[in-house]
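Data's thin. Show one?
=====
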Amino acid sequence: MVTRRRFLYSAAAGAAMLSRMPQGLAATYDLIVKGGRVIDPSLGIDAVRDVAVAGGRIAAVEENIAADATETIDARGKIVAPGLVDIHSHAARTKEGPPLCLLDGVTAFVDAGSFGADGIDQGAANVKAGPNLGRLLINIARTGVAPGGELHDLSRADVSLARGAIARNRDVVIGVKARLSNNVADVNDLEALRRAQEAAAPFDLPVMIHIGQSYSPMRAILPLLKRGDIVTHMYAPAPNGILDDNGRVLPEVLAARRRGIWFDFGNGVADHFNWDVVERCMKQGFAPDTFSTDWNTMSRTTGVIDFPNVMSKFLMFGMSLDQVIARATVNAARVFQAFSDRGTLNVGAPADIAVLELREGSFEFLDNYQGKRTGRQRLFPVATVVGGKKAPARA
């Protein structure tokens, strides 16, 4: 039975769709991505499908959608995935960052600690101006990331200032970041983490820690983390990484994952991973929960290159395409509540889509120590849709 309310709702929806079309000639959809191999781990889909978009949202994921559309993307021979979610980047350092990473398929990102209390307002302005969904982790150090290390002077880790900055920007600040490497914090690492937790507590926010060659061992760091916190640069080599002296994953690390701590890859450029640690961990079944890039506007000139390149590195270690895409989409979206409706092509979700090409050949991949591995497959960004609109093509 069609109630009056349902009839009026349907009529209004139809009128809205008609009003979007030029000269009153209505297409059924705004956009259709045709004929691609849709891989969406959130829905368990790995099949050739069309993806239709209307009103900025996913309208249908079906075989051979015959309806007309204002715009079509030919994705035959390509992979169609949810828009990529990069939970550790530095895209908000400049206004140019968000639109640049969008060209790589990144439709949602977290700037992880570029800004502390002193600069967070500018960071917030940068993400709000971007075409993709950007959010911030405030650095517990008021300076944000600083040359030479921002936590050697512990007075910079001002809890009151951090809380005030979060309160001012509660719409975009979704967590707190603490860099704990010895060259950033040295003997202050544990106290800096305690202060990060103090700043986060009134807002019930997660804390992300950057590990690698820290002064304190992981056995001392992990007990200070709570469920929902994130360890990034998880494959950082010794000293004080996640492996013991025999190359085994520490029992405390396994226990941390069981109690709800996320472990993120965090590619980066210096001291964050080498192939030996990756290989040892992967052989023991300790894969990342999420992938991220530690991206900035110069990343294309480094071993990062782009997010699809980072994802491709794990195809060398036996991960399936479905597993790789999951860590860049649905898994990443689950880490932060702000992304709860991202990382999926579910009908009704925001129409964020990454079209990727999987090429076969010989591809060189770098770790952070100029170590080289050659893989047979690499993902390349082809097209991006954000909020239902096709982004400019990458040059």
Summary: The first strand starts at residue 29 and ends at 40. The two ends are 53 Å apart (CA to CA). The longest helix spans residues 4-20. The chain has a mean pLDDT of 94.
